[in-house]
Amino acid sequence: MKLDDLKHTKAKAWIEDVIKMCQPDDVYLCDGSQEEYDRLMQKLVDAGLGTPLKKRKHSFLFRSQPSDVARVEARTFIASKKEEDAGPTNHWTDPAELKKTMTGLYTGCMKGRTMYVIPFSMGPVGSDIAKNGIEVTDSEYVVCNMHIMTRVGTKVLDVMGTDGEFVPCLHSVGKPLAPGQTDEGQWPCADMEHKYISHFPEERLIWSYGSGYGGNALLGKKCFALRIASVLARDEGWLSEHMLILKITNPEGRVKYITGAFPSACGKTNLAMLIPTLPGWKVETVGDDIAWMKFGKDGRLYAINPEAGFFGVAPGTSDFSNKNAMESIKENTIFTNCGLTEDGDIWWEGIGYPAKGELIDWHGKKRPAPEKDKSPKGEEIAHPNARFTAPARQCPVIADNWEDPQGVPIDAFLFGGRRPSTIPLVHQSRDWNHGVFLGSIVGSEVTAAVISDQVGQVRRDPFAMLPFCGYHMGDYFKHWIEIGKKTSADKLPKIFYVNWFRKDENDNFIWPGYGENSRVLAWIFDRCDGKDNAVDTPIGWMPKEGAINTDGLDVSKEQMKEILSVDVEGWKKEIKDIRENHYPKFGKKLPKELTEALDTLEKRINASGSCCCKQ
Ligand code: GTP
Ligand code: SPV
Ligand code: MN
């Protein structure tokens, strides 16, 4: 399609300005068709950037630059007019200055390249909860990924009409080409200090420069659906969250919907596609990364998955850990930074079977196949943040109503993270505000999903939104408190904190996780159903003795006790850290309800003495 086909006045004017600034050789308006995808993918293959996989129909492997393997939080900016509005957890920069710097970088940055204009919808096209965006990019890889991750094309332009709302998303890999120059098979991107992932919340505008990877470049995802959408949600009274959405059916055929916020690479995709080990239970997928939730007329919260695909962590994905993901990526999938086998398939650490012969690692180097399904740190065949991009409709357990424009009614929220100690397998908040407190104290070991020197260390990641909240986190906590006042308590989702990641003294996980997490989901389901299966403890509601079904589970009674009891000393340290290091960051913006919840917790913990509160 040609730019003249664009009938939206504001969009056209914006794009014309971008053309003047970026000076591409060509401009192309995307229609979202299969033909378009195939043509652009062929261009990437011809340029030596993508490798077709003989073993997987219509699937391709890409290798990025070592400086461009994950989100870069240090180069992610919230450029609100006032610094205070970005808050203590974001990198703030003055919007005018940032625009000046970036305009310098953007000037002429698309020389030698085609500029693609991608009209896309986050959420089913036309849904009341969905929103439109237009991403302008000079990367064919980004266009192909956006085709899978969002709904792209003419149908979105029809909904936008001549003056409908949209979020402008500008992206460039930041690597102009001189006449006759090509990428020579090298993933194009800019140096780290020239990468900018910028958000202008008041203007609802995104400018990204210098990275082609994941959340830095597929701007519908974290930039729009979380950072900008969190601001819209605050202003409009809804929730935009880093949450999976699952549908769970019990043996009697009753259905509930659960969302869960876990930090990056902490198990959302796995939980969303879980195959229950408990007989008679069924889990189906609605979304694996982001949930947008609005109140329905009945006063309940309804969630949609704004995305259309999965951008999932590849390493560790196997028939054992996530069979449904393995099925979802059999065809029509883009792989990034995975290993390549001699017979033309992908391989990664934790894929569940050893590789044979020689492999090509994510750097493009030939390597002998590792003897085990593991490699030493830093020597992996697949980068620890290697990812697959696959259409959600290919998931064998995608719920039949996953695209319902009304969304699905939510019964429970889960919070969780990688916590080797203290936090039990599951506990439930006493009420809404206590639940908001639990969300606010989420902590987790940092994973490879972000380029950071903190990988492996525990950091607080409130609501798993630390890198994704587009405004002051203290105001975000307040927004959650306010949401709880908008409807009656019985209509609000119940709130749980789960932890699959407790470790023993030998650094091994105590809880087997994956499909076995269905045992915890079943308890949560029954809890939402009003079953008398919980006891009151100093930290909230916990499973009654025997209320978590352990039939056939390879965990000793002592270990179950350990992960299902209140670690009084551990919680004392936790409370001290929250009070001294975590909460003071938010200053006056910290809602009093959260300080009250912390005080109550402290009183209850102190009253319980130094016993271990074993049930
Ligand atoms: P993003 O896409 O980065 O937002 O992450 P995600 O939350 O969807 O992460 P994902 O489900 O892909 O989790 C990836 C990592 O978590 C892999 O290393 C998995 O092996 C591990 N994981 C997932 N579920 C479990 C579990 O129940 N127990 C344990 N021990 N590890 C798990
Ligand atoms: C995450 O890091 O939480 C992701 C991957 O889901 S990315 O899209 O790169 O942000
Ligand atoms: Mn994510």
From TrEMBL:
Recorded superkingdom: Bacteria
- Give residue ranges for domain Phosphoenolpyruvate carboxykinase C-terminal P-loop: 238-604
Which pathway does the UniProt entry assign to this protein? Carbohydrate biosynthesis; gluconeogenesis
Q: Which positions bind substrate?
A: R71, Y213, G214, G215, S264, N385, A386, R387
Q: What GO terms fall under cellular component here? A: cytosol
How cofactor binds (record note)? Answer: Binds 1 Mn(2+) ion per subunit.
Q: Does the keyword GTP-binding apply?
A: yes
Cofactors: Mn(2+)
- Provide the GO MF annotations for this entry: GTP binding; kinase activity; manganese ion binding; phosphoenolpyruvate carboxykinase (GTP) activity
Q: Give me the residues that bind GTP, please.
A: A265, C266, G267, K268, T269, N270, R387, R418, Y514, G515, E516, N517
**Function comment:** Catalyzes the conversion of oxaloacetate (OAA) to phosphoenolpyruvate (PEP), the rate-limiting step in the metabolic pathway that produces glucose from lactate and other precursors derived from the citric acid cycle.
Record-stated family = Belongs to the phosphoenolpyruvate carboxykinase [GTP] family.
Q: What is this protein called?
A: Phosphoenolpyruvate carboxykinase [GTP]
Q: Which gene encodes it?
A: pckG
